[in-house]
Amino acid sequence: MSAGQRMAATDLERVMGRELSRRGLSDDHIARVVRGLIRTSLRGIDTHGVRLFPVYLNELDGGRAHRRPVLTFETKRRGAALLNADYALGMVAGSVAADRAGDLARENGIGMVTVTNSNHFGAASVYTLAMADRNQIGLCFSNSDALVAAHNGRKAVVGTNPLSFAIREEADRFFCVDMATSQVSFSKVRHHLASGQPVPAGWAYFNEETTPGAASFSALHPLGGYKGMCLGLMVELLCVLLAGTPFDHELGNLYEAPFDEKRPTAHVLIAIDIEAFQPLQAVRQRLRLFGEMIRNLPAEGDEPVRFPGDLEYEAEQDRRRAGIPLDGETAAFFQRLVDDPAPA
Questions:
Q1: Does this model's pTM top 0.85?
Q2: Residue of 140, 144, 165 lying closest to 254 (CA atoms)
Q3: 254 and 186 in contact (C-beta within 8 Å)?
């Protein structure tokens, strides 16, 4: 498989499912991980889709993530629950929490689940879209290891700490926001460095005494300066204080060994049942008309004005038909799995 080659979603599903099954995950947990990674890649969010699969295997093989976790809920108030994920893969923990948040919202109008002892959970939109699939409004937040500098600082002290919001617009379209609170993701910086491309100004800090590179990376810029730092800290405090987990600067790096060392990540998932407030169809019609108004605004340049979620919708239409494009490293990884299907 050459760099840039596409692979059908069904083929990726089969290979990933096989590798997770070999590691002893339950069928339910396998489905949650595979579904989340595939949906993310189909929507064009390549930094958080199937490209992460090798990292998740490292977490399982090293013991950072448990293969057969015992997930337990604690409920002290109506509409709220705390999930101890027992170091499950983050995509397992996040999707189980999203399901429970949706159930609580159906019962109480709003449901919130805080997750403790989890791992990296991929794209936050995996979970807000799952809640939007149920005709609810989904919100999701997660802390992460420190990669972002404080405003006016150069040292990494805050995570990229994503936040997401999703609501269904039509049967297969969603208003969906999924964003890190750094200027760009660390994955983008890593990609530029690995491919020899210059890192644009305003993306990251590097140690001044060395040539910019992976070894001299210091920190990412916060999104929008001081306001972005505030957003990142807001997400961090919302997650770690309610989950009782370490702060961002106390977590190990996702991509680095030792993979037997736990990095207890926290998430917050909130589901809002629309019909507890307004008739569902009226909300969907208003959202559709509002989206059409935004899309029909005069454009500056050749690209049309888009509503949040449009680019992902367009990517999904293309990738379901033509396959998911893979970068060279990811293509080579999956090709090895295809060529050597026998257990090691």
A1: yes
A2: 144
A3: no
The Cα 294–Cα 121 span in angstroms is 32
318-321 long-range contacts, CB within 8 A, separation 24+: 319/6, 319/9, 319/41, 319/42, 319/44, 320/9, 320/42
Summarize the confidence of residues 126-140 as an average pLDDT.
98
- Does the pLDDT at position 342 exceed 70? no
The closest alpha carbon to 280, from 136, 115, 156, 133, belongs to: 136
Dump pLDDT digits (tens) for 1-20: 444 699 999 999 999 999 99
How far is C-alpha 262 from the chain's CA centre?
19
Q: Is a pLDDT exceeding 60 seen at residue 119?
A: yes
Please state the domain extents for the chain.
Answer: 74-276
- Compute, in degrees rounded to 10, the torsion defined by CA atoms 26, 32, 35, 41: -120
Fold assignment, 74-276: Ribosomal Protein S8; Chain: A, domain 1 (3.30.1370)
